[in-house]
Amino acid sequence: MRKLDLNLLWDSWLGLACHALVAYGRDDVYTQLTSEIAQMVRNGRVLDVGCGPGQGAAALARSAPGLFVDGIDLAPAMIQEAERRAKKMGQTRVSFAVGDALNLPFSDEQFDAVYTIDSMKHWPDRAKGLREIFRVLKPGGFILAMELDRRASNSAVRGLARGGPLKYIPWPATWAMFRTVAGAASFDRDEAQRMFSDSPFAEVSVGALSALPLLVIRGKKRELR
Ligand SMILES: C[S@@+](CC[C@H](N)C(=O)[O-])C[C@H]1O[C@@H](n2cnc3c(N)ncnc32)[C@H](O)[C@@H]1O
After folding, report:
1. Residue 137 in domain
2. Residue whose CA lies nearest to ligand 1 atom number 10
3. 0.90 cut: is pTM over it?
4. Could you identify which of 88, 150, 185, 210 might form a hypothetical disulfide with 121, taking C-beta atoms 3.0 to 4.6 angstroms apart as the criterion?
């Protein structure tokens, strides 16, 4: 049997609906990530890889007046929605384009920081995606990646349902979706540590968001000497 290609899902109204189911009401996650970036980079250019409908990019641009945020996503439907949202909010310090994490449409050393939320699990070659992010970062720049923890506890998985529409879905359905599709496609803490340690990034650390099944991975591109 052919494996379901989740990337076909994202480029459709169904993808936008699935995204809303999980992400709506989860401003806490975007805020946590964007406030960390805004503290570390006051002025500059930041890239969101696999930006989806642009919630993270919009939150970052809103909270950090010195930043310009680029978002790329493989799915044209997501980029259209991100552009619609930015226009509606009158946000001019964001720019979106269709693009592949494995072949980023930017020249070398353009960005002060790169982040990615909930997208890496879909990349067919994660090591290549990390090398691409490293390439487009300036020396001294950093990566912040958030992704589902494949081995998250059930209580952390339950955290997904707090604060968003998932609370209306019966718990067994959420559990099954996580254990067989979304979470199952991802990696765990040890795998994340290995993957980033094998990448060109330095100062790698792997943490987690409390009460949610999310890993937070940080790494740095060393300054040139
Ligand atoms: C679960 S959504 C997350 C969207 C957004 N980061 C957020 O948290 O709101 C995953 C996104 O990753 C995108 N994606 C998957 N593979 C990709 C790739 N190779 N390059 C760029 N984007 C990709 C999908 O199209 C989808 O929009």
Report:
1. yes
2. 119
3. yes
4. 185
